[in-house]
Amino acid sequence: MAFGIAREELKRWKEQVSKGKIAFITHYWIHPRFEGINTVTKAGCSDVEKLIAWGHSYGLKKEWIHNREKYPHFDLIGDKQLEILICENQLQQIERFFPKEKN
Question: pLDDT tens digits, residue range 43-55?
């Protein structure tokens, strides 16, 4: 179950992904398999080779890509999620979804 994002945010993410850019969107998320995890970041790009290379730079395997029609993406969770958001300078998402981490 996903929640905590506005339709306009999702629209912007889809536009960036469709243009072949690496784009990020974070939202609250609850899944019974991942106890204690309450957010997920989708790192997407329609250029799958570019997405594979980007993911490789963070130790992500191409097999982990969710190949969703026009919006292929990695789901980032846990420590790796925060590490990548910091490296990618996604400060707005960090402040919004990880407020205790900014101190």
Answer: 999 999 999 999 9
